[in-house]
Amino acid sequence: MTQNKFNLDFESFQLLLLEMAQQRSVDELLKLVTSSLASTYNVALARVWMITPGDICNTCNEYAACQDKSRCLHLMASHGLSIDNKTTWNTIQHGAFRRFPMGVRKVGRIASSGQPGNISAISGNSDWIADRGWVKKEHIASFVGQPLIYKGEVLGVLAMFTRIALDQGALGLMRMIADHLAYAVSNARAFEEIKRLKRQIENENAYLRKEVNIAQSFNGIIGKSNALHEILQQILLVAPIDTSVLITGESGTGKELIAREIHSRSKRAGHPMIKINCAAIPKNLFESEFFGHARGAFTGAYKDREGFFQIADRGTLFLDEVGEIPLELQGKLLRVLQEGEYQRVGEEKVRKVDVRIISATNRDLGREVTAGRFREDLYYRVNVFPFLLPPLRDRKEDIPLLVNHFLALTSRRLNRPKPHLTQSEIESLTKYDWPGNIRELQNVMERAVITSHLGKLDSGISSIAHLTVSTTARGVQTTGQIDKGGILTDAELRQLERENMIEALRVCNGKIYGPRSASEKLGIKPTTLISRLKKMGITLEDWNGSN
Ligand SMILES: Nc1ncnc2c1ncn2[C@@H]1O[C@H](COP(=O)(O)OP(=O)(O)OP(=O)(O)O)[C@@H](O)[C@H]1O
């Protein structure tokens, strides 16, 4: 083997090109090239600089010389060994030459011109040498620098210092390596980009899957607003733990719906959730309703009676309008919540109970405490985990979804075609402030389905549009002033539902379960149909008779 030649034999050269083609990481690729060249006999140092945005301009040695701070040459790979075998030059982190401005010094000039820079007799070209001491000490005889060009664009510079003078053959080899390297770099970059996009898509998919899962698993709770999304997340958080929950929100914002969702996701789901409307209980009956009474405890107490607490044992008690509980009872309620014990009215015996409390209020319960109408200790007890449901006017992006949901739901229930709303109707509905919140929207959509059947579609909807305009014009909130045109009374609505069910039974010949049954036609569960038939007092004669 000749020692005065650049000794990259054909086999090693071929192997290097093959390995380069297989690399999918730019870093690994550049390391492969510089380490292979540096391990070749007579090569002192091999380096690659790539053009990327300027990063360390403030501390860069070449700051003053740099014209274009938006980009420069970054040292990306370096391999070399000193002549005494004691020092390697494999780091890219430090050193005076880790950045070159475009057009500055030999590496910068190669990059800006796109032309190779070969100095085979280095001593006669002293202006090309930055560190003469190093060149002398390391017996450097030649420098070769090749631009890395891909599709006409200079990507960087491959350079090599050798301890022998380079001949044309060696320069030709370097040219081929550089060309091949430029292609391999662009391939590796494409692979890295694909990998990055794949990772990004995977992350996005994981995120969307999570969102879809949440949306699907909350299929009765409609909406896409951030506010609702946060509430759904909180439900997931609080449902499995047994803490008391206080849901605050205006009437019709979905407090009961949220309470039911929390219960159904809790470990108590196999037991009942008992809803108590505290506003509907006469003051003198609270205690007996809550805790039950013994026979003879008061006039009219003809037999023992269990209270809501007992019925809800191991389940959940939903205290709707919790602020309405009289002060006298609040202390007793606190005792059950703290100790899990209570007594029936007119009975000494202390009973144990295990109940989770979910309360709801449309008042500011904190203010009720300040006003002395609600016990502070009870407040803290029921308000361990607060939910604040925003009114519908503060989450308007949910309105179109809710409109669509209730139209579909009611059309299915009444077996009517789903009315189509125009864009401007949907816009009007979205502009409207919905003082009655989701319940009001639900009612208006039910009416829209019915009036559409009566050939008077959109009378309810247009009145909302009208209402929106008049509300805005007057700058005040108008509640429930929808005109009567096309709107059914509650009794008319029930009658229509009744007729619809009878019609479904008649068409299906009284079949309630399975394919082509009335429940299938109505889009409800057979058990729901049976309970509605019972509730409405619909019998066999009704649908037979109407035949
Ligand atoms: N996000 C929602 N998606 C679908 N339906 C909803 C949603 N929120 C509420 N609803 C429906 O709106 C109606 C009113 O909701 P709910 O009874 O839970 O309100 P509330 O705040 O408890 O009212 P109130 O304070 O008057 O008792 C119900 O029929 C409920 O199913």
TrEMBL record:
GO biological process: regulation of DNA-templated transcription
Start and end residues of each Sigma-54 factor interaction domain: 221-450
CDD domains for this protein: AAA (cd00009)
Organism the protein comes from: Desulfosporosinus meridiei (strain ATCC BAA-275 / DSM 13257 / KCTC 12902 / NCIMB 13706 / S10)
Keyword set includes ATP-binding: yes
Alphabetical UniProt keywords: ATP-binding, DNA-binding, Nucleotide-binding, Transcription, Transcription regulation
PANTHER family: C4-DICARBOXYLATE TRANSPORT TRANSCRIPTIONAL REGULATORY PROTEIN DCTD (PTHR32071:SF57), TRANSCRIPTIONAL REGULATORY PROTEIN (PTHR32071)
SMART domains for this protein: AAA (SM00382), GAF (SM00065)
GO MF term set: ATP binding; DNA binding
InterPro entries (UniProt xref): AAA+_ATPase, AAA_lid_NorR, GAF, GAF-like_dom_sf, Homeodomain-like_sf, P-loop_NTPase, Sigma_54_int, Sigma_54_int_dom_ATP-bd_1
Protein name in the entry: Transcriptional regulator containing GAF, AAA-type ATPase, and DNA binding domains
Entry superkingdom: Bacteria
Database matches in SUPFAM superfamilies: GAF domain-like, Homeodomain-like, P-loop containing nucleoside triphosphate hydrolases
